[in-house]
Amino acid sequence: MGKKVNAEKLSIDRRIISRKLLSGEISEKELHSLLKKLPDVGDNAEEVNPENNEK
Fold first, then answer.
1. Distance of CA 46 to CAs 1, 37, 43, 53, Å?
2. pTM for the complete prediction?
3. Most CB within 10 Å of its CB: which of 9, 22, 31, 46?
4. Where are the alpha helices (DSSP H) in 2-49?
C-alpha cells in the first residue's frame, strides 16, 4: 500500500473511492487524511429553489 494516491482522483466518484478501499489501494486512515486536506468550498454554494426553476 505504498502507492501515492492523488486527492483529485478521489473526488471523481464515490464508487472509485469504495473500490480503492476494498482493493487495498488506499486505507481508511489515508482516505481521512486526504479528505482533511480538501478545501472547504461551502461558501461558494448557491441556494437553489426548484419551484422557481420550473417553467
1. 39, 23, 8, 14
2. 0.52
3. 31
4. 7-10, 14-23, 28-37
